[in-house]
Amino acid sequence: METKLINCPICNCSKFKKVLSKDMLDEIYTLVSCKSCDLVFFNPLPSQKNLTEYYNGEYAVPLFQQKKVILKSKKVLKLLKTLGLKNTSKIFELGASHGFFLNEVKKMKFEPYGVELSSSACETAKKKFGIYVENNLFDKSSYYNKSNYFDVCCMFDVLEHVTNPNPVIEGFSKILNSNGRVVLTIPNINSTEFKLFGKYWDWLTPPAHLFYYSPKTITKLLSKYGFEIEHLETYRGDSSGNLFFHTYISLRESIFSSLKFFMGRKKLLLKKQYIMDNMDSTNLVSDKEFTGLSGIIFIVSEKLNFILSSFNKKRFKNGNGPTLLVIAKKK
C-alpha cells in the first residue's frame, strides 16, 4: 500500500473527508470524499506492486458474463443509433476483453477497434469473432497517436479501475474526431446499494475498484476535457443481481469479515482465496455467475424482484441505480 495521499484527480484539491475503511484482510483501505468536488476514491491508492500482483496481466471479464455484456452492448449501440451514429463509424473500446461488445459492433456494420491487457482475452476475440484486439496499454498502443480518428470511444466498467482517470479521458479527446463521443459505464456512488450496504457493497473491492463517480463528478471530469453530456442514466447494468440479492451478498460479506476476530486475519485471508479460486472454477465449468446456495438465492431473488419494480423505476430515474451509463460528445 502506498502511504502518500494523492490530490483529487478532478479538481486537484488536497482536502478530504473520510467516508469509511474497507478491510480486505491483506490491507485496510480508506475511502475518502473530496471536499471540493465530492469525488469518492480510495486514498492512498494501492502500490504498483499490489496492483501488478492483483491483475497479473490476465485480468478480464469472465466468459460466463457474455450474455450480460451482450445485453449492455445492444442497449448502448441502440442509444448511439438514436443519437445519429452512422453505420460507417469507427468504434474503439478500451478494455475490450474477449470482444463481446466489439462483435456486436461488427454485427451492426460499425468498424470495431480495441485494446486489452489480457493476451488470452485478445486470442479469444480473434478465434471466436475474427476481431483483432491489440494486446497493449492504451498509451502504448498503435491507436494512441491516431488523432481525430474515431467516432466513439467506449469503456465499460473500466474507469473505476484506473489509478488516474485524466490521461485516459484526455487520450480519448485526442483520438476522437470533432463530433466524437465517449461512452462509459461505471459504478454509481449515489446508488441505493451503497447507501444501504456501505462497506459491504459488492462494488467496493480495492485494489480492483478505486474510484467511484456520481452523475455530478463524472460530468465534471468529462467537462474538463471538452465533453458535454448527451445522455446520462442510472440502471441495473452489470450489478450482481437486485436489491434482494445484494442484501444477501452484503450480509454474507459482513458475517465472513467478522470471522477475523476468531480465526485471525492470515487464516481468513487464505480461506477467502481458497473460496474465490473454487468459485471461479465452478463458475467457468457451469457457465453461470452464481452457483450453489448463491445460485438458488439469485434465482429466487430474480423471481421476487417484481415487488420492487415501482421502487426501482423511481430510484433509477432519481439517479440512484447501481450503474451509471454516460454518453458525452466533444464540444
**Side-by-side strand order of the widest sheet:** 6-5-4-7-8-11-10
- The share of residues in helices is 40-55%
Give the amount of beta strand, in percent.
Answer: 15-25%
Task: Give the SSE order as H and E letters.
Answer: EEEHHEHEHEEHEHEHEHHHHHE
Shape assignment:
globular
| Helix run count | 12
Structural class: alpha/beta
The CATH homologous superfamily of the largest domain is called: Vaccinia Virus protein VP39
Oligomer: single chain
What is the total number of structural domains?
2
Count of distinct strands? 11
Q: Which CATH class of the largest domain?
A: Alpha Beta
How widely separated are the two ends?
A: 39 Å
Under CATH, the topology of the largest domain can be stated as Rossmann fold
Biggest sheet features: 7 strands, mixed
The CATH architecture of the largest domain is: 3-Layer(aba) Sandwich
Low-confidence stretches: none
Mean pLDDT: 93
**Rg on CA atoms, Å:** 20 Å
Textual characterization of the structure:
This protein is of the alpha/beta class and 331 residues long. It has 2 domains: 16-54, no CATH class; 63-241 and 311-330, Rossmann fold (3-Layer(aba) Sandwich), CATH 3.40.50. The protein is built from 12 helices and 11 strands. It has helices at residues 48-55, 66-82, 100-107, 119-129, 165-175, 192-197, 215-224, 243-258, 260-263, 265-286, 292-304, 309-317, and strands spanning 16-23, 28-34, 40-42, 90-94, 111-116, 134-135, 150-156, 176-187, 211-212, 227-235, 323-330. Helix 2 crosses helix 3 (100-107). The protein is globular, with a radius of gyration of 20 Å. The mean pLDDT is 93.
